[in-house]
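Our preliminary data section would be incomplete without showing what the modeling component actually yields. Below, a chain of 302 amino acids is followed by its predicted structure, encoded as tokens that our downstream tools consume directly.
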Amino acid sequence: MKRLTLCLICLLGANARADLTVDGTSTPGLDGGADRFTMYLMNDQLRVDRVITKMINGAGADTVESSILVRFTGAPTGILFLDHGARTVKVVAAMQAAADEHSGSASPVRITRTDETREILGRVAQRFDFSFGGSIDPMVMVGQQVPPQLADILKINLAVTGTSWVAPGMQGEQEFAGFMQKMADHQMIIGQAVAGQPVGGSKAGLISAELSSGLKEVMVELSQHGLPVHTTTNSNMSVALEGQMAVMMQGMLDNLGIGGNYPSETIATRVDAAPVDAALFYDGGVPDGYTVSRKSAQTMPE
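Predicted structure:
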């Protein structure tokens, strides 16, 4: 069965210069195993690199295979997926202010601060538990494999529960909180990628405004207490079908591996507030020789 990975992408920005670098691991990654990543924050731009080890001249060397850029200024703006091997840039989503009618979550967002603590990266981190839920657009989830005229009979629900260890007093926490506050004023993407599929591919895009709202509320609240340095989630996907085509559609979804529980874990291994190299953001443009494509872009609803 195909593994489903929720790529929860947040946006950052602050009025003052805000530099931050975070190394870590994310499981499961795009290939089903563990991904190593490096996140860079500078002003109103965020970059997340997927780092892999390649054999070069008989020795292992770290290589940035792909990157996600999130930015409010430059050309193009929005959520960008850079495939450095193919030298392509895909515009996954455009940026726009959040619409009031999409501000509510389908299920209540619950965030609980516990008394449990743990030392992480030299800081005493506090445990927070959270939960939220909503529906998923079936056309985003399974794309062209569902005829448009049948999409209305298909309903996919997602319930997310998780635990985040938040460390106060770390360098860059104010910048991160400013990032989350600006994110709260904009639409946020919850994208999904089936194992082997790039984040910017045909299976990535907006899942639902209600899930976006729930995640936004969780991240804004957590950032008020410090940096989330270790987060685990469990996403339970359930399929509800209506109409005479239910049996056929359920069989198709089973074959696609959609449904069930999908655990994930993100761990920060290093946090550094040193200045970030501006060249990582290509002066607000794209790398020389890269082709920009908007064919797979999923824009936010008005």
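Residues 25 and 36 are 4 Å apart (CA to CA). The longest strand covers residues 227-241. Preliminary results of this kind motivate Aim 1 of the renewal.
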